[in-house]
């Protein structure tokens, strides 16, 4: 059996077991056998592939064995597949009775002993679609229709013509089918198990061919102590400065292109590494948010230094030190798969250390001027790129037609212009083509020149093109267009009449019915304690399949579901997603919509992660004029996020620090407090806009902060004094003089906050911050700007 067959068998072996377990009613085995024998892609493999796909243990030796198996001793390929199966997950049970279980959410397993989840959550047994990715409690779960899933899978499988299509078909149809019948281990999908099994199998095959492991050692893989694998980690640094260090004027034309370029760059570098090491798609354990993890055989260890040096030299030549990819690896033995999260953490620590020794691999002495020296000799006025500052000594310059509105003699370099073109290409993108190229020039005039130096060329399009390797964007129905697969991501941009909306127009969209501040909201958020979630959160089963499943499901929300939230709330023309992937998001938009988005995104994320109290995110939210320097607003918003994450309410008794906050208007609140701010704002807005009150009521309500402060503090200690709440009406007397009903509504809102605190809420849900009232008043002031009273 050759190398390609080992890989395909690794991907398909557990699918064969599944079909065998369901074979009585639909004869799935013979249907798959027919596809493997008649499909042109599978015909290049010999009949041994059938045998490996339908390898079963002694308890399952039925008609399948008589059709496909030669009795006798296991072949080398069977030993490799068995070893890979064993190492992929700590659960060692065979697949049968698959229709009795559905996939349990892996998020319920994070810090399982300490989390607050009292019921299991399950995914619907349906093909992958953004409508189907939320887990539900068992009493709301539809019964599994595994037969329908298998039938549709086989119908599409017969049409595949390349290896990558098989990989994505498996993800599409088996992302929510459990890999184990065990109730305690049913949170790993059949896809994730098959993916990691194939990655391990091809690595073991390479080790065997390199004479690093013997057949007998494969049979006793759990006790083999010699290093056989490499875990490779890469982390791209310089991202924020690269994206945001540009002029604010027309920034909307460039930001998305620069951000998307970094995504493409990392994708290409990962492809480059995989190709150079002769690996497969399954060996990419994770790639997103500026990070990647790759599994490789230990025999490739000597190739890594040359790869790292080559990558760094290309990045240095293309970006003069602005971007750096820190890469490192660890070697490990088969038995260490049992605690794969520890390996994940160890290699991450090594990469962090590499970041403190940037460019060592290219030789600091030889490249000192490139890294630390000036870019060029300086230029005359207007003889440089007005976006990045580079001169024509480095790249070709031309007049910037997109920015020259007043015949300004501003020039733009070819690279920055290509980012603007990329932004424009994304407006209506439905497809992404990634194709190989032999253009290995070291002249970097455009973003595709940089990508081409790694052997690939990218293009986005709204319609199908003639390229061979095309991916469908945010749509898993890729086989209908004969695409290679699908990719989730926040690709599209706010537009009007097929024209991209500017940041000034986004600010104008904050004005509703003539009311409101013409400003932008800038939001940065990311998952709290992500490192601890991966390295400590998976307590009992820390297998490679579980780790990759967790990272894939986290990415699915940030890269896929964000689009659904924007579209379902009709925010397409009001939100500009600069980047969203891995575990973080940065967006710009109409300030009032950004506030609503933050609340909605948090609410859906909590639902998606089964309300696990240890899986949260924090956010920083700033409001700025549309022409405020974008790099400054980005850095300030990052500072707000840092404040949200470092706030301390004297809680040091948990397994990880509880953050779970949002910094808004310079003040940090928990998410329940933000919800109350919005509720008070809605009430005040109604009083000002619809009930005829002047904006003077806002000042009067602001005064009530003093009276409510002691009441709120009492409620957080479980104390309720009705007399104090009654006296609060004194602070609202000016409101009461004009409208007793309005004052009553405000008192009811305050009272509901007190009752909320008294009903045994957790500290995360407790309303502590008295600044909720000033924040609500400020929010209302911004929302009612330009409102003409009377």
TrEMBL record:
PANTHER family in UniProt: CRISPR SYSTEM SINGLE-STRAND-SPECIFIC DEOXYRIBONUCLEASE CAS10/CSM1 (SUBTYPE III-A), CRISPR SYSTEM SINGLE-STRAND-SPECIFIC DEOXYRIBONUCLEASE CAS10_CSM1 (SUBTYPE III-A)
Keywords for the protein's UniProt record, in alphabetical order: Antiviral defense, ATP-binding, Endonuclease, Exonuclease, Hydrolase, Nuclease, Nucleotide-binding, Transferase
Gene3D superfamilies according to UniProt: 3.30.70.270
Official protein name in the record: CRISPR system single-strand-specific deoxyribonuclease Cas10/Csm1 (subtype III-A)
TM annotation in the entry: none
ATP-binding as UniProt keyword: yes
Keyword Endoplasmic reticulum: no
One Pfam family cited in the UniProt record for this chain: Csm1_B
GO molecular function: ATP binding; endonuclease activity; exonuclease activity; transferase activity
Family of the protein in this entry: Belongs to the CRISPR-associated Cas10/Csm1 family.
GO annotation, biological process: defense response to virus
Organism: Halanaerobium congolense
